[in-house]
UniProtKB/TrEMBL annotation:
<dbReference type="GO" id="GO:0031418">
    <property type="term" value="F:L-ascorbic acid binding"/>
</dbReference>
<dbReference type="InterPro" id="IPR044862">
    <property type="entry name" value="Pro_4_hyd_alph_FE2OG_OXY"/>
</dbReference>
<keyword id="KW-0560">Oxidoreductase</keyword>
<feature type="domain" description="Fe2OG dioxygenase">
    <location>
        <begin position="24"/>
        <end position="152"/>
    </location>
</feature>
<feature type="compositionally biased region" description="Gly residues">
    <location>
        <begin position="232"/>
        <end position="251"/>
    </location>
</feature>
<dbReference type="InterPro" id="IPR005123">
    <property type="entry name" value="Oxoglu/Fe-dep_dioxygenase_dom"/>
</dbReference>
<keyword id="KW-0408">Iron</keyword>
<dbReference type="InterPro" id="IPR045054">
    <property type="entry name" value="P4HA-like"/>
</dbReference>
<dbReference type="GO" id="GO:0005506">
    <property type="term" value="F:iron ion binding"/>
</dbReference>
<dbReference type="GO" id="GO:0004656">
    <property type="term" value="F:procollagen-proline 4-dioxygenase activity"/>
</dbReference>
<protein>
    <submittedName>
        <fullName>Prolyl 4-hydroxylase subunit alpha-2</fullName>
    </submittedName>
</protein>
<keyword id="KW-0223">Dioxygenase</keyword>
<feature type="region of interest" description="Disordered">
    <location>
        <begin position="231"/>
        <end position="251"/>
    </location>
</feature>
<keyword id="KW-0479">Metal-binding</keyword>
<dbReference type="GO" id="GO:0005789">
    <property type="term" value="C:endoplasmic reticulum membrane"/>
</dbReference>
<dbReference type="Pfam" id="PF13640">
    <property type="entry name" value="2OG-FeII_Oxy_3"/>
</dbReference>
<dbReference type="InterPro" id="IPR006620">
    <property type="entry name" value="Pro_4_hyd_alph"/>
</dbReference>
Length: 251
């Protein structure tokens, strides 16, 4: 989630469309289907004991957004067999595969299109059984999709790449002593950066408000290393003309 500016931009547009904030979304999932591959009918919301504890704190899957990334020559429709068409005549697709022709609503994949459906009732309290859906067999060509699941609560689960990489905290009990001994610059690999155990004490990151993806993304960089690199560039150029030896011209 928010891995780069392109994905963050897509997630912001999805939030505007769905009225569900970006911090409620799971990381995007990319899927590829070829040679008759399919995904049988299922619901995206959970009602089983295995997921019970997780969705009490991070919400259930409230809405699903499917982004179609490729043209498909045959098959590959998204079928919602229990859904009621709003306009049956307008929602008929051309040359449907056998899977898509039976019942409910089917959507033919076209590159650049997106499909949104809500998995739960408007209050987010109960799963909507009419949100049952399947990916029909891809009969010809290749189907690429990106799936974005949106929760009815803020989602910062174990699959979020920013949860660990973007954190700003100390993980070692002796950070004060190690910082006082100059460890932030002499023991960089251990104390700072993504795996650093004293990032907060070394002033290697900033504390981010909950759900601030842009702030967390900045913390994936090392502020200490950036400052050191900046000072190095400034020092190398002070008073030195082109071709001057390092240090010459510095008074």
């Amino acid at each position: 989630r928010g891995e780069d500016s392109v994905i963050a931009g897509i997630e912001e547009r999805i939030a505007e469309w769905t009225h569900v904030p970006p911090e409620n979304g799971e990381p995007m999932q990319i899927l590829r289907y070829v040679d008759g591959q399919k995904y049988d009918a299922h619901w995206d919301w959970f009602d089983d004991p295995v997921h019970h504890a997780a969705y009490l704190t991070e919400g259930n899957r409230y809405a699903t957004v499917l982004l179609y990334l490729s043209e498909v020559e045959g098959g590959g429709e998204t079928n919602l067999p229990l859904a009621d068409p709003i306009d049956a005549a307008a929602q008929v697709i051309e040359a449907p595969s056998e899977c898509a022709a039976h019942m409910g609503i089917s959507v033919k994949p076209h590159k650049g299109d997106a499909l949104l459906f809500f998995d739960m009732d408007i209050a987010g309290a109960k799963g909507d059984r009419k949100a049952l859906h399947a990916s029909c067999p891809t009969l010809k060509g290749m189907k690429w999709t990106a799936t974005k699941w949106l929760h009815n609560k803020s989602y910062m689960g174990r699959f979020d790449p920013l949860r660990q990489a973007g954190r700003c905290e100390d993980e070692a009990p002796d950070c004060a002593a190690r910082v006082a001994a100059g460890g932030c610059t002499t023991d960089m690999d251990a104390l700072i950066g993504r795996g650093g155990v004293c990032r907060k004490s070394c002033d290697d990151c900033v504390s981010c408000p909950s759900g601030d993806i842009l702030c967390a993304r900045r913390n994936m960089r090392s502020l200490v290393r950036e400052r050191a690199a900046g000072l190095g560039r400034e020092g190398a150029g002070v008073g030195a003309g082109p071709g001057a030896a390092p240090g010459t011209g510095v008074h």
